[in-house]
Task: structure prediction
Amino acid sequence: DAKTTQPTSMDCAEGRAANLPCNHSTISGNEYVYWYRQIHSQGPQYIIHGLKNNETNEMASLIITEDRKSSTLILPHATLRDTAVYYCIVRVAGGNQGGKLIFGQGTELSVKP
Amino acid sequence: GAVVSQHPSWVICKSGTSVKIECRSLDFQATTMFWYRQFPKQSLMLMATSNEGSKATYEQGVEKDKFLINHASLTLSTLTVTSAHPEDSSFYICSATPPGLAYNEQFFGPGTRLTVL
Result:
């Protein structure tokens, strides 16, 4: 079962920041937080991941709380092309679990003009 | 970036026939690939882990005799849905990780939509 809880859906105005929350209260010390998104009828796309420090890349920023029980994915200037389902996943990086990703229900983000 | 392709992108078949779906890593070698299934309005469900040169590892509840997986080379894994029935209609997606990256930075194929009549 997925170890994360996300809101089912969110709206965001084009050009504004989109803040997508994720709760992972049972996260273990060696588990990372990963974010993927899936645009309709396409394969998922990796966005970002982090352990405990905040991370930023060309797509997004990831803010992880100090107790690591929740995190927020930030799309700084959302565009219509960011409309997608966003998945927050926690798991150990690499390791002997073979890299399996267990997807929860995700958050359906709708960016509106 | 790493590219994973799938073929075909969509397929329609009659009930009782078998369908083969290919997953290729175009610019890297992948010893491990993953197969997912996604029903409409639902999340992705991991079906199996495909290992080059050895048997696939299936998730609980996935029939290995119905969903045959062959990972014959470092760039190709195939999923064959045998004796397909309408309830097998779904979106099938594969993924792989280039060497040197953590497993979870997976790159996904575009998916194959299977419709069984």
Remarks:
- Chain B has a mean pLDDT of 92.
- Chain B has no helices and eleven strands.
